[in-house]
Every structure is written in C-alpha cells, then in structure tokens.
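Standup notes
- HV: blocked on the assembly model, inputs below
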Amino acid sequence: MRAWLRSNRTALLLLPVAVITAVLASSSRIDDYWWSKGLHDRADVTSGVAHFKDEYDDGYLTYPIAADISLTSVEPVTTIQSSLGTPEPVTVPEGGMLWRVRLAFEADPDVVLWGCRLAIVDSEGTRYDAEPRQFQTLGATPIHTCVPDDTPGPQPKTGSTAKPQLAPGEGPRPPAYDTVAYVVTPEGVKPESVRVWWLPPKYAELKVDDATSRG
Amino acid sequence: MKWPVPRRAQLGTGALVVAALSLGQVLVEHLPSSDRAGRPFENEVAIGKTVSLRTGDLKVTDVDGARSVQPQRGARLMSPGLIVVVRFDFTPKVPETSITYGELRDADGRTTSLGLFGARSAISCPTPPVGITSHCTALVEADPRTLAGARLTLGPSAIDPRFDDVAVADLGISTRDLTAWKSRTTPLDVASSTVAGMP
C-alpha cells in the first residue's frame, strides 16, 4: 500500500486540484440561474446613505448607474394629494394598506437613473414591490421612482447604441432631489428596510429606523 | 512470442477503471431522464382546501359547468360538450407571481392545456401584491364523458412548469353534476377575475 501511495503521489496531489477545477468549470449555472437573477450584491451603506454603483452593459451599450441614496421616510397613507392639492382617497386591495416611501438622491446629472425598482422588506424578509397598478386613486402619483418626473435626466434610446441623452425640451436633472414611491402591503406588515435596484444582483438596502418610520 | 505479464498493481488499476465505468453505466441507467427529473412538484388539493406552493397559497373554491357560459367581460362561449368553470383564490408569497399554467387531466388520461388570453380554455388570474388574494378563474372545454374524476393542474409559469410547485386539484365532478350542467338552459355567468377588494 505504501509503495502504491509513493508511486502515485503526484496523481494524488493533483486529484483535489482536478476536483476543484471540475466544480468551478460547471459553476457558470450558479451565475446564470441564481446570482444574476436575484438581489445578492448589496451596496455599501455609511451613515444611512447607500453608495450605489453599477453598470448597464448589454454588449452593445454601456453606461454607469451611480447614486448616493438615503431614506427620508416611510409612512402609511390613506389619501394622496391631487395636482390641485386636494387629498384624494386611495382604494387598496382587501386586507391591504398603502405606504409612501420618500427617498433622497445625490447623483451626477449625466448618469442614467431612470427605470429603477423599489420594494419594502419586512422583518421576515418578505419583499413587497412598488407597483402603481396595485392601488387606485385620483391623486397625483409619480411616473418615476428614482428620478424627478419633469427632469428625469438622460435616457437610452430603445434599440440604439447611441449615448443616453436628455429628451428634447427637458432640462438637466438637479444634482440632488427627492422622490416618492407607493407600496401596497398586507395590513400589519412592519417595514424593516427599503430596497432599490436597477439590475440584479446589485441593490441598495436602507434600514427603516425611528427617524424614518412614521408607521 | 512472449506475451507481457501484467504486474499486480497494473491489474488492480485495470479493475478499478472497469469498476468505475460499470458504476457510471449503472448510474446513467438508473438516474431519471431530464424530462422526468425536471417534472413539477405536484401538490394534491381538494375543493375548499388550501395548498401551500413555493410561490403562494392556492385554494379551489368552486367548480361549476354548463354547455354555455357568459363571461362578465367577453363573448359568450358555447360548446357541444361542456365548459367547466373553476374558481380559485391565489395569495402570493413572492413578488410578481400569479397562476398562469393550467392543464386539465380528464378521466381518460387526456390533457387539455389552458391558454391565457383569447383561448376557449383559458386561465385568468391578476397578479396581486404579496400577501393579498386574487380571485381567479379557469375555463376549460371538455368531453362530458371524461369529466367525472378529472383533475386540474395549476402552476405559476405558463411557459415552463418544470422544477416548481404546482397544485393538482381533484375537481370532484360526479355524473350527477354532469347531468345537471348539461340540462342548464341559460348561460352560466362567469365573474371576471379580480384582486380582492379592487373594482
């Protein structure tokens, strides 16, 4: 036995390397089916500000997505103000309630920030995504979640590889601004954090604390 | 000519190679094919009971049928056979989830796939927020002779039910039900599917 071990020493030493190489070689599915499909890569947060930094790259067009994001407030609402300033009631599904989430952004006006998603996460890790069609109101609800509606900043043109530009007639986006989003959850849910993301797996997570929670 | 005589170590190595190849062959023959390995996880459920799927909770609330049905929003459907109307509730556990896969398995073992929009046999289930219930409807046209004992499979993905939980509901259709449904003289009204509490 000892002689066999001695004569096959090299092969035995290389065996773990071969096994690790084989596992790594077949691990692309982890990226294809899990890592890039969900929110797994959290942005750094310091003093309540998430430093989000990602990149859009479809092989033809590349642009950065970068912003400092902070949570201003999370509060339950039963009315939303109309464009004339009058409070309009909201209709939510049976057993549901509506939350208003206010975010503050600081970002280079030339960076593309439209098209983000937002969700409330409760203490059990359940995610409730912001979807405008989940409630009804005559109040003024925002079109965009992460940019001002009237100055959304540069946008890529669908099907084009041209550098993202401002739409004709639109002014530049201010370097700092606030946004509002609405989220429906079942009654009794206690928001623990707010998530913002553009392209999985990268996301920003902002904790709901005494300063931001008004629920 | 003198044949080379293998050493004991060489014979052992050869035996190990043959054993490994044999083991590989046995595994290949006994492991399920990709179709079978990828089949959905079936969860049996009876009418009125709730089944917990990976994507949410599903409860079949009512089964009815007629030769003619009148959807709340849509054209009247008539059939030389029967149109079965299955109402069910779905409460998602994960965002952006609904029930879009449906398949009727009749008593003869035939299957009828349900489409989404515009199909005669169709499923309709709006996507509610997580934790909120949708009242959904499945319409399926079938041969009345095969409906007693039929089961309906419901799942979250219309295009690929593999690898995920699906509910298999025994529709509990009896020959008495079939006689009553066939003798209906007016179309059966079918309310539109909705998220609970929404217009």
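- HV (later): unblocked. The first strand of chain A starts at residue 41 and ends at 42. Residues 9-25 of chain A form the longest helix (17 residues).
- Next: hand off to the docking folks.
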